[in-house]
Amino acid sequence: MSTIAETGSRRQTRSSMRVDGWRWAGRIFLLLMLLYTAVPMIWMLITSIKSGFAATQFPPQWWPDEPTLASYRKLLDPQNSVGQDFLRFFWNSLFVSTATTILSVIVAVPAAYAFSRFTFPGRNFLFFAVLLRNMFPAVIFLVPLFILMRAIGLVNTHGSLILTYLTFGLPLAIWLLKGFYDNIPVQLEQAARIDGATRFQAFIMIVMPLSTPGIIATAIYSFIGAWNEYIYAYTFLSKNDQLTLPVGIQRFFSENTTDFPGLMAASFMMSVPVVVLFLVLQRYFVRALTEGAVKH
Amino acid sequence: MLRNIWAHRADYAYVLPAIAVMLIVIAYPIYYTVELSFYKTPPGLQLRDKTFIGFDNYTTILTSEVFWKVTWNTLIWTFGSTFISFVLGFATALALHRDFVGRGVLRAILIIPWVISAVAASYIWKWIYHSDFGIIGAVLVGLGLADRPPNFIDNVSTVLPSLIVVNIWREFPFAMIMMMAGLQTVPDQLLRAAKVDGANAWQRFWHVTFPHLRNVSVVTILLLAVANFNSFIIPWIMTGGGPSNASHIWITHIYELAFGRQRWGVASAYSVLLFLILMALGYFYVRALSGNERKEGRA
Q: Cis ω on the peptide bond leading into residue A121 (within 30° of 0)?
């Protein structure tokens, strides 16, 4: 009797020790991943509050002797040319991203709803055609799109970017939203139809409000995608006052190659809107992204 | 069939805007790329002067030395980034699965690199790798591991691994999010039952958790592979493909051929080859996804 209890308790200790081993391994691993993730971002912030002289020291100043916000002031000052450019790029990015987001939602909502609810001929084919778009890199489309945009007079306008980002974001938007519609019971709509609502009314009054989280997620995704897009903007726009932030910053710092604090400050400010948006709305975002790939 | 389509005519109205936009911006460019790949094109975009040359562009590509160099780089880049991102993301998801204080904050911090622009990420890392004032070089010198700061991105043998590190930095969070969601679908009862039966942590992972995550793993890996195969910004901003093509991958190479050297025909032929490879990958992607759909249908 006592031997059994003894072996039992010994086994208990050994297995709990082993569990502890895994848990410690997990903690150390997480710490390393945190360092890998955070150190570059922290170094960006520290560099951005240095003077140009302090940034180019060896060994580096781990913390600047004289922290300064000069780089930020320069970028945000509408009086000097650097600030004018930066603020204009920022505004351009905001305009293009917002327009793309609104249009994406307007186009993706009915499409996703149809893919989720109706069984029309060719539905599967169209759905996979939409998804397959995700597979192809921007470069394949660049030359013909450039020619197309030139033919319809959109080169050097924000319209070319909005139209392109729209299609480039649509597949994922449709996929995300379809996941949400799949989870809304058809019975709710049927009840509304019995009460005399048309299909369209049922869609607007019942389905739309229920899919708000999905729409928010789709909107964030479109916005972040458009905000960060580089290759089309780099190819389609050549006028300085039209550029969006990623291209604008590149253009700008290829002329001022040694202004590292300025570059880091600009990178930081370019990241702020999307990171804030993401942090505030992350539960929608994460849920939507995984909805299609994981079945509950 | 036709009557069936007609009977559903109202349904098409919902998808029409999406399809119309896609046709203009996707179908037409694909057609045009295929056409151009058979032509010799003059520089500049005066494409009316093109002449038909059959498969010459393709033979030019396949017999050039740069092609094989770039293909090899692309393979290392794609497999290296995908594999390591997936493993790191999966491991992080497992480590984050148990609740602890600060878990939400930690998760949010780990996802940030995925949200910020690849252009910003490229500049941040370019500064970190800087050959005179970079922080990594300074740490290595400080620890006595190097006499002088190593030059990571101007060196033929270190440039590609250095860029892969940046790419993984941006991509492992995606794998992490997907796998975290997957982990939530593993039934607790099964894990507890396995524990009662005396399975240790590793056995529980390998025999219960992992088989459950097969589908989501396949989808995640495919999405990562496609994204990596198609990536452009990090090599383009950080090195522009250099030094001596050591960090050129397919996409940057095609871009340079088209917009740098204005060899539109050759670049189009490259794109068509790329397209064929992606169609093969796409086949597996659709199969993995429709596998999911079928299961859902049965459930």
A: no
Cα separation, B82 vs B229, whole angstroms: 9
Helices marked H in B37-158: 56-62, 65-97, 103-115, 118-128, 135-142
- Which residues make beta-bridge pairs with B39? B52
Task: Specify whether A36 is located in the same domain as A80.
Answer: no
* Same domain flag for A127 and A199: yes
Q: Are residues A22 and A166 in the same domain?
A: no
Q: How close B105 gets to chain A, by Cα (Å)?
A: 10
What is the pLDDT at residue A291? 62
Q: Of A110, A131, A93, which Cα lies nearest the Cα of A245?
A: A93
B196 touches chain A (CB under 8 A): no
CB contact under 8 A, A29 and B95: yes
Q: Which residues of B281-295 are buried (b: 16+ CB within 10 A; e: fewer)?
A: ebeebbebbeebeee
The structure's pTM equals 0.85
CA atoms of A139 and B25, how far apart (whole Å): 13
B66 CB within 8 Å of a chain A CB? no
Question: Is the domain of A9 the same as that of A102?
Answer: no
- Which secondary structure element, helix H or strand E, spans residue A125, and what is its range? helix A123-132
Residue A53 located in a structural domain: no
Helix-, strand-, coil-residue percentages of chain B, each rounded to 5: 75, 0, 25
Q: What is the pLDDT of residue B204?
A: 86
> Are A7 and A77 within one domain?
no
Report the domain count for chain A. Answer: 2
B164 token code pair: 């892969």
| pLDDT tens figures, B9-67 | 777 777 777 777 767 767 777 888 888 888 887 776 666 677 788 888 888 888 888 89
Has residue A236 been placed in a domain?
Answer: yes
Same domain? For A101 and A19 the reply is no
CB-based contact A81:A87 (threshold 8 Å): no
Distance CA A189, CA A200 (A): 10
- H or E stretch covering B40: strand B39-40
Q: Domain range spanning residue A12?
A: 2-48
Could you tell me if A76 and A44 lie in one domain?
no
Q: What is the mean pLDDT of each run of 10 residues along chain B (299 residues)?
A: 73 76 75 85 70 84 89 95 96 88 90 92 93 87 85 89 96 91 84 86 86 85 87 91 88 89 86 84 73 48
Residues A203 and A128 grouped into a single domain: yes
Q: What is the CATH number of the domain that holds A166?
A: 1.10.3720.10
List, in order of start, the domains of chain B with CATH numbers.
Answer: 55-291 (1.10.3720.10)
Residue A102 within any structural domain of the chain: yes
B:155-184 residues touching chain A, CB 8 A cutoff? 169, 172-173, 177-178, 180-182, 184
Of B45, B109, B220, the CB nearest to A34: B109
| Token code pair at residue A11 | 């086994």
Domain for residue A224, yes or no? yes
What residues in B contact A118, CB-CB < 8 Å? 8, 11, 14
